[in-house]
Structure prediction request, 268 residues.
Amino acid sequence: RAGTVPPGLTEDQLWRAKYIYDSAFHPDTGEKMLLVGRMSAQVPMNMTITGCMLTFYRTTPAVLFWQWVNQSFNAIVNYTNRSGDAPITPSQLGTAYVSATTGAVVTALGLKSLTKHLPAIIGRYVPFAAVAAANCINIPLMRQRELKLGIPVTDENGNRLGESTAAAQKAIFQVVVSRIGMAAPAMAIPPVIMNALEKRAFLKRYPYLNAPLQVGLVGLCLVFATPLCCALFPQKSSMPVSHLEPEVQARIREKDPQLETVYFNKGL
Prediction:
């Protein structure tokens, strides 16, 4: 973090220190990230929340509570892993949180009411549909400042060239796709297994094992889905200069007429 290398440090130790630093500190602001908002917390946090969402989906109060918990957690993750270094005021953060969680919870309740008279297996997929729709709401709202002001774009050497809203749109789109992909196996596979198990005598005899089994299955899926979907798009994403806003293109052409590609931190 200080930018100095202690004498006697091996290359392996240096790389380990870099991995630890990169996992704990924001790449743009250099701030230490909230523990529950880091990608390392995704599996333990999501397996618990998602498992409970898939278990307690039958009543409206349960849907309301667990969707609120899930979207509150997502809001923390989205804020922690935002792109850019522009400061966010507490009022802006509060507005973004309230609008994001409200929109997501309303979506979940609306989908639940639409599937009320459909087969039970369809009802089990309401949490996934709600999470997918909510990600499309929560992530842009928690990162709305980036959409308004843009995120830093650099050349391949990391020299800052300006801020671009077009880069912000691409970054947020990639994160939305990654998050939905991350949730898909964990919310699509366990319902099929649990639907079959609930028809057997075992779970009828031991119904209290429903939630632990659900959480365990979700955790197993997330162990593989989380790193895979984080790697769908590179952390340091890129786009052609010609796809940026005209005024940003003009500023970049003034600095480097030959530059064809800019880079940006997409967030996670």
The first strand starts at residue 151 and ends at 154. Residues 24 and 33 are 6 Å apart (CA to CA). The first helix runs from residue 11 to 24. The chain has a mean pLDDT of 79.
